[in-house]
Amino acid sequence: MLLHTPAASSSVPIATAAAASSSTSQESCHRLLASVSSSVFSASPSPVLRRFLNTQQLSLGVGQQHLRIAHHPVCPMATAVVSKSALISETPAWNSLKSHLGHINKTHLRDLMKDKERCEGMIKEYDGVVVDFSRQRVTHETLEKLLALAKEAKLKEKIESMFNGEHINKTEGRAVLHVALRAPRYEQISCDGKNVVPDVWEVLDKIKDFTDRVRNGTWVGVTGKPLTDVVAIGIGGSFLGPLFVHTALQTEPGTAKSSKGRRLRFLSNVDPVDVACALNGLEQETTLVVVVSKTFTTAETMLNARTLRAWITSALGSEAVSKHMIAVSTNLKLVKEFGIDPANAFAFWDWVGGRYSVCSAVGAVPLALQYGFETVQKFLEGAWSIDKHYRNAPLEENLPVLLGLLTVWNVSFHGCSAMAILPYCQALQKLAPHIQQVSMESNGKGVSIDGETLPYEAGEIDFGEPGTNGQHSFYQLIHQGRVVPCDFIGIIKSQQSVYLKGEIVSNHDELMCNFFAQADALAYGKTREELRAEGVPDYLIPHKTFTGNRPSLSMLLPTLDAYTTGQLLALYEHRVATMGFIWGINSFDQWGVELGKSLATRVRTQMNAARTKGEPVQGFNYSTTTLLNRYLKGKTQLLYPEPHDVFPSDIIPGTDNIVPTEKVEQ
């Protein structure tokens, strides 16, 4: 039996049901059907239906188009209620924007920018962060329609669900609470009925205590020397987020002073070149290794962890592990088996996704070791500033919401498949790689949260480079090739100052001149008429014409320090969440990364057999077999008289390096 709702209905009772209990009575079934028939056309399910479905471990939702009753073992008329969610593209608000697109396509930014009132309304500020999106291809009417789309998608309710600890990551059955990682002690944020903020601060207090002891020399290495060098091992969000923050802070005068005499390195790739770079110039007796793996089973991370454990014990003995290695993990059993004292393990939780984990112990431990816990606390406070704004500000004044809506407009309506992140600040050189993961791993989905194939474009390719480097790299395409919306990020007060006598502007002023000019160049372009007026030869005019009308937005931060770095991080995180909430996808799982990892297990087994036993490559397609054989042909066979650890020769100098043959293993 299929019950249809009127087209205008915004919500009906739904659920994808597990098998109902065999104790369900005939009376309950009849109550269910009676309730369905009376409430399916209403905005919400009746209490009877909700109670019945809850009893049977079924789920309810909104925004549905139909409800189907299937066979039930006790009541033949029903076993489960199966639903199909309404996609956002099927709503009046979406169709209104599609119709509006024709009007926008007849406009040009050089004309829109003449409207002072329009521009004034598109410059927003919160807590020192200024965002100017007047160079986006929007009018006030466009914004009204985008805000209507947000209401249609129940964006405000979804934001509240996230902050309330509801399990919005439905495919993994988890809450999404990275906001709790930066909440003040007095805040209450609950997950499964428990306030998690005290747990967060218990870990933060532990981090402060430990990192203070390392920095002040109370905690020393096994030989009694201070641990001044840190290598943080992790991959994905366990690496990109902390690296972004570290790079942003290392040239800021205050944090540079607090890190004097200390070094922080990151090891993420299993490529031995990365090992060589991470360990170059370090000594075992002054090095502390932080192993970041929630489960302590991540293949790349654990191989690197075993590599650095061998590096440490080769010089200091096995007892050194407990003094020179710590963990960020929840698997204390494997931490202990590895040789790390569980007391030196720092926890985080299932409701923290890897790409959102920099504010957890994942980032807080290495950053506090380098800069001190006070710097980490300032970073968390900056992120919390934007968290509060995202939760409480009206949609029309909400910076992450507006940025997310504009991205949806560019991707799903204008067909822009990429976005450039262009910080005019060298200290933000690792922002784009981090946001690349936050955005593309979150929103790189082809199905809705209910598994429906999306009939519209979602997700975008994110890339970037600091200005002015990018201008001499890929700006050619941005100006005269594909349309790529751009984020220009500028800093009012530079971390460092250079001013030369006789120069008309300082070095930072020169940088910012380009920041202001590039946004206008993309918006206005240069016409054939302007070129002719300048006397450009006719044959060059097509080559020197700039169409303009290319969207961008500009952000200005007062300075780049720990607080504003936290603000910038949270601004992008919530922008990405907004996009996912509008598109109706799950921005908090990442099933796309699993298949390649599982296939690599087969290759790993074959690689071992080929290199240690000389067995032939088999079980793969022709292409993979050919390339594997070509790879193996150029490798040294691993035939040890006895097993030995092998390290890059420039890392462990001397004659103690044992290699499999006379050749260094390649």
The CATH homologous superfamily of the largest domain is termed Glucose-6-phosphate isomerase like protein, domain 1
**Average of the residue pLDDT scores:** 87
Strand order of the largest sheet: 4-5-16-15-13-14
Large-scale geometry:
globular
CATH architecture of the largest domain: 3-Layer(aba) Sandwich
The number of distinct structural domains comes to 4
In terms of per-residue confidence, which ranges show pLDDT below 50 for 5 or more consecutive residues?
1-82, 651-666
User: If helices are DSSP runs of H or I spanning 4 or more residues, what is the number of helices?
Assistant: 25
Report what the structure shows.
This protein is of the alpha/beta class and 666 residues long. It has 4 domains: 2-86, no CATH class; 90-152 and 393-589, Rossmann fold; 190-381, Glucose-6-phosphate isomerase like protein, domain 1 (Rossmann fold); 593-633. The protein contains 25 helices and 16 strands. It has a 6-stranded mixed sheet, with helices on both faces. Strands 9-8-10-11-12 form a 5-stranded parallel sheet, sandwiched between helices. A hairpin with a 2-residue loop joins β4 and β5 (129-132). The N and C termini lie far apart (65 Å).
